[in-house]
Amino acid sequence: MRVADRGGGGVIVLNGEQVELPHGVSLLATLQSIGITDESKGVAVAVDGEVVPRTHWEAYSLHDGARVEALTAMQGG
Amino acid sequence: MSALEQSQSIEDPLVIGGRTLGSRLISGTGGFASMELMAQALTASGSEIATVALRRIEMPKTGAGQRGSLVDVLARAGVEVLPNTAGCHTARDAVLTAKLAREAFGTDWVKLEVIGDEETLLPDAPELLAAAEELVDDGFVVLPYTTDDPVLARRLQDVGCAAVMPLGAPIGSGMGIRNPYNLTLIREAVSVPVVLDAGVGTASDAAIAMELGCDAVMVASAISRAADPVKMAQAMKAAVEAGRLARLAGRIPRRLYATASTPEEGLAQL
Questions:
Q1: Helices B180-189/B150-158 angle, 10° precision
Q2: CA of B257 to nearest chain A CA: how many angstroms apart?
Q3: Ranges B74-78, B144-148, B237-241: which has the least confidence
Q4: How large is the average pLDDT for residues B204-220?
Q5: Average of pLDDT values for A15-19?
Q6: Which residues of A touch B (CB under 8 A)?
Q7: I want to staple B233 with a disulfide (CB 3.0 to 4.6 A). Which of B45, B69, B139, B218 is the partner?
């Protein structure tokens, strides 16, 4: 688990779109920018192919180039 | 039909992974014209669980994402979420998707799909087996969508899958059960529940699956893309019950020639 403030900011890829981030922004703050909070139901997040549990979102600092996938339930199957 | 089945009754519930289900019809949530229609059809189907997929949350500028609304609608309809791994082509992607679904929905159940071909959406057997084994080891209750291959079904059971979900025909094809003999062999090959998945086009297909000894039927497109999904959901519910009753009742053998049901004795000599 990465510690907050170790990240140097830069550009991440959030659901396939490039997003610029200032230094030290947490995963939670990034998710909040697209309307997700750690109370949002039916949502899960992976960073660089690993699940990040919601209890860790606040402390998780995104590194430059991180690939974030924020997923939710869709009709299917 | 086994002696065990003969002693069963129509009321006996389905048990998967230690959990009792009252309905033997599992529904999909995809393909409905509206969320409201989906909710009505799910209620009419009597399904207790319905599959959902995991997809990217819509970014704010690309549209107003109705986050959580599907989960809310399912909860209001009294239907539990069965996450699937639809769209995954490798064991790695399917395993990660299952773990994300566990995080999102708080369930360790997963309908495992690993697709090997875009045109037919047929399962990729080696990847499916690898993903199933990894997920079982991680504590998941795994329900794998599989080809109608009795050997693969047994291998999936052997790695610990809670049920097997063989196809009757390709997903969304509505072609019915193309190889009833293989379903019969699968029923004999495994002791875990067999859930027919994919291929059902109309109610009689669901009834045939149950008559062949399947423990449950999964229906998605046949309901959601029917001209009247609510009516078709009712039809599927009735068909699953009828097929199950017929299986338990024990059908007569097929014969090439007639067997009179009226006695010859006492026939008038006219």
A1: 30
A2: 43
A3: B74-78
A4: 97
A5: 90
A6: 14-17, 34-36, 40-46, 49-51, 53-54, 69-77
A7: B45
Query: What percent of chain B is helix, strand and coil (3-state, nearest 5)?
Result: 40, 15, 45
ipTM above 0.95, yes or no: no
Q: Out of B61, B111, B231, B237, which one is annotated catalytic?
A: B111
Nearest CA in chain B to A48: B96
Q: Is the pLDDT of residue B260 over 90?
A: no
Helix (H) or strand (E) holding B237: helix B229-249
How far apart CA B155 and CA B161 sit, in angstroms, is: 9
Give A-chain residues touching B60 at CB under 8 angstroms. 34-35
The closest CB to that of B101, out of A41, A44, A45, belongs to A44
Interface test with B, best of A36, A45, A75 (most B CBs within 10 A): A75
The CA distance from B270 to B265, in Å, is: 14
Q: Kindly indicate the confidence band of residue A5, based on its pLDDT and cuts at 50, 70 and 90.
A: very low
Predicted local confidence at residue A2, as pLDDT? 47
Burial of B110 (0-12, 13-18, 19+ CB in 10 A): buried
pLDDT of A57 above 60: yes
Residue B43: C-alpha distances to residues B56, B145, B231 (Å) = 27, 24, 11
Angstrom distance (rounded) from CA B76 to CA B260: 54
How close does chain A come to B213, measured CA to CA in Å?
23
Across the beta sheet with B165-166, the strand order is B109-112, B141-146, B165-166
Confidence of residue B27 (pLDDT cuts 50, 70, 90): very high
C-alpha B161/C-alpha A57 separation (Å) is 32
